[in-house]
């Protein structure tokens, strides 16, 4: 039997699940359900990523041990997926003893092969992304290019993985496997990254403890493994790599579902690790975009994170599943709004799908006592049947390429054929004209189309489609899928049952959203004496000259007259808010007795005062023109 192995990323336990996690998981679940329905032996893996500095710090903040904290959050992920009836076959935790043993085995193998060596690492590290970045990639020489947070310099003894050794083989892989990255358009950025030159990867840390120790055979207890090495290996340790390998026949993965933020880890580092372990390559790294809120990235500090449980409670988990997959082309970013969700429920689901079932129930009851036969359908409605068949046969490649939005869009064309057939052939007129056979064939045609749509839609809306199947009197399972979809057969008889409306109309938003960002807890600000305040000399100055610093997104170089012999050179991080032209001639308040500092190789001899809130940044200026050098007290 053919197999399919599908994975989600394992989610960090530093935060509770949000809509992005639900999105990846629901896509993977839909794919797993589809392949099961196609009769594939399918294994679907999800889980949680529990090691690393980020988790250690999150636990500490809450006064818990990392394991206690990980237990708590991991359980929340699992409970949510269970509530959403996610059909995973295994929920892995990176604190599972089998995972730890498997990771140590993998490390040992790579080490013995000579792909791991000991050295010293010095570099900019972003704790939030758990990643090192070369100087050339940093924003303004200190900020993380991925999340924008400040990086810190870390210098430590480290074991390295010989990533550079695999550069050519990786490029060959991308060239040979056209669909290694899905959507295909995303592959170019991976190729560019690898072509720009791969450096060996630091894969152990000594600066914290919360991680997997090196294998006992290497005996270097100071080190713990880099969280990404630990995490990526979950995809094989879940199958028992290095311990009980009975499930390893599922390897290689057919689909690693990932968000675009972690494409590089999956399309570059992971294949290189696998090459070192001499294991086959995954078939597809399927990469989706980001869900945003009013165009902005969701984050806790902005208070705009969407809780998937709240959406599911308000609108129903299956409607939410349909929306997530239909609304945004796979690979692109999408903005979440209740209005868009309500429109999808009322229009696509209510009008196109739900109403069709109502029409079948209504007509079959009124005219035929809820019993319908299909014997005349092929004879009378050949054209409609061919149209629907053509639509259905084109769907599997769309799912195999993870083009879920297109799949659903096309599937809805089959509903359009059914709705149009009713409007064109008006069974109520046929009944009046005494053409009962034709009217029954029409209702049977439409019921057949709806049954086929329900079979195809089942992976996305498992329960709703079961209700449709119950109403039409058939079963959804691999046998019926093979018969009515793959072999294009017709259902012969329908015993229709009444069911309550599937998609009651929604008039207005149901979910209450937080308008205000959460208030930050007030920190106790220590008081200072007047003498301490006077240690800071603030003076009024006039900007004489303002220039851009070529490589910097944030900094401007200013010359500011403070009434001294020569103007001061000040490097100010205000470029995102002011153009140089706006600044010349403006008066500002300057901290005049700061120790000079170098910023991007330019001396800065003071600091300009500014106030920043959520609307932007504004310079602090005297209300009326004031002599340069006047102290501000
Ligand atoms: O990265 N929109 O875990 P993580 C869409 N532990 N998807 C989003 C999203 C958003 N706004 N925010 C997050 C990790 N995601 C690692 C993975 S795998 C070996 C290790 C999704 O908890 C997206 O799939 O930060 C992203 O890749 C995943 O959540 C990251 O989850």
Which helices and strands, and how do they pair?
Elements: E1 3-7, E2 11-12, H1 19-37, E3 41-49, H2 53-61, H3 66-83, E4 90-93, H4 97-112, E5 116-126, E6 131-133, E7 152-161, H5 167-176, E8 181-182, H6 187-195, E9 201-202, E10 204-205, E11 224-225, H7 227-232, H8 234-237, E12 255-259, H9 263-276, E13 284-288, E14 291-293, E15 296-297, H10 308-315, H11 317-327, E16 334-335, H12 338-368, E17 371-373, H13 377-380, H14 382-393, H15 395-400, H16 404-425, H17 427-432, H18 436-457, H19 462-472, H20 478-486, E18 493-495, H21 530-534, E19 538-548, E20 556-561, E21 568-572, H22 580-583, E22 587-591, E23 597-599, E24 602-604, E25 607-608, E26 610-613, E27 616-619, E28 631-632
Parallel strand pairs: 1-3, 1-12, 2-3, 3-4, 8-13, 12-13, 14-16
Antiparallel strand pairs: 5-6, 5-7, 7-9, 10-11, 14-15, 17-18, 19-20, 19-22, 19-28, 20-21, 22-25, 23-24, 26-27
The structure holds ligand ME8.
The site of ligand ME8 has 19 residues, from β2, α1, α7 and β12.
Largest sheet: 7 strands, parallel
- CA-based shape: globular
How much helicity do the residues have?
Answer: 40-55%
* Mean model confidence by pLDDT: 93
Structural class: alpha/beta
What's the name of the CATH homologous superfamily of the domain at 337-495?
A: Isoleucyl-tRNA Synthetase, Domain 1
Whole-number radius of gyration?
31 Å
